[in-house]
Amino acid sequence: MENGGVILDTNTAEEQQLKSFAHLVFPSSRKSVDSKEPKQKDVEFERGLITSISHGVMSEDDYLNCIERGVAASSRILDFMRKTLQKEAASVAA
Q1: Which of 34, 48, 87, 91 sits at a 20 to 30 Å CA gap from 13?
Q2: pTM of the predicted structure, to 2 decimals
Q3: What is the DSSP string of the chain?
Q4: Choices 3.30.230.70, 1.10.60.30, 2.120.10.30, 3.40.50.300: CATH for 12-93
Q5: 37-90, pLDDT tens digit by residue?
Q6: pLDDT at 43
């Protein structure tokens, strides 16, 4: 992989060939970041990083790029899950 490239959701074989990699954990809701504020539906907020574990040596810019890409990917996954659960709840309620 080229220097500075990012692979999301790597497997063990891919990780063994990389110079460095990071495992990142993001919250799934505002409540998990700040439990003092009530959860507000349909409000955009800045997602935080719960924890990260990195292996190897990477530049600060590469690490921040990993976080940026991880936030974007996790946001899409959470949006998909939310829409799927809303559809399921609507079909059960009908």
Answers
A1: 48
A2: 0.67
A3: --TT---SS--HHHHHH-SEEEEEE--SSHHHH-TTSPP-TT--------EEEEEE---HHHHHHHHHHHHHHHHHHHHHHHHHHHHHHHHHH-
A4: 3.30.230.70
A5: 555 544 444 567 889 999 999 999 999 999 999 888 888 888 898 889 888 888
A6: 46
